[in-house]
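To: structure subgroup
Subject: Chain for Friday's discussion

All,

I'm putting the inputs and outputs inline so they're searchable in the archive.
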Amino acid sequence: MASADGGAKAIIADEENNSDLLWALRGAGNGNFGIVTSLTYKIHPLTQTIYLVATWPGLDDLQGVFEAWQHTAPHLDNRLTSQLEIHRDEILLFAVLASGSEAEATRMLEPILSIGQPHLTTKDANWADNYAGLQIPIDQEPANWKFFSQFISEPFPPEAIGLIGSLMAKAPTSDCNYFTNAFGGAVKSSEPSGGSAFAHRDALFYAEPGAGWGTRGEVLASDDPLTAKCLTWIADFSEALRPYVNGAYPAVPNAGMPEWETAYWGPNVDRLRTIKAKYDPENVFSFDQSLPLVSG
């Protein structure tokens, strides 16, 4: 990593060298301490996977689907991950099972799939092919996106799910969505050697209300009449759910959020500020929500 301490220099952060910096970068990098110039990963082979998609038309089944998902998905086999994506006219469940069968995947998700009459598709393929199927081609993406990040540690009560449904029904475009990703599993049960500053391992799920609008290559966001409407809608969405969430993700920053340091890093803020002072004492790497230096 390139550090600003005493002038630009390259340093190594691993379990034997600058281990405090390694800990900080795992969850609070984001340009706070320097510029990461290279990474070394330990990887695990993954070949065969099952990719499952369930679709419910409209939002009539939202209460049942969301309730079943949030009480099921975070507690399943570590090999299965899933997410909900709620639009103004449909509910989508995406799930990937590593090294298993279609029957096994549908059995695990039965509490969710038994709600209503979803349309179901599955694909048995290697991970590279299934991962490619998860991606939306860039030219089909809206020109503009605005997200807010949320971590949820207690199941949403019915009134919170009702808020999601009513707000999504009023979404200004069909690209707007409410996205969730189940936690639990290995996220909760294991941590990298040497630890990490990531403070939300006990979350049930991560979520993002997101506004998407505009066509690429046409009108700039500043000139698009939908911009103000979409930004107002997404800000209202985030604020409405504030009583039900207890954290946020610094890689999807929430501008204007009060007490953002605690929302991002929880009890790790003081240690992170001390590490910031050590590796960036002149606060060279400073931005709107960068870690503040230790005062005094």
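Points worth raising on Friday:
The first strand starts at residue 2 and ends at 3.
The chain has ten helices and eleven strands.

D.
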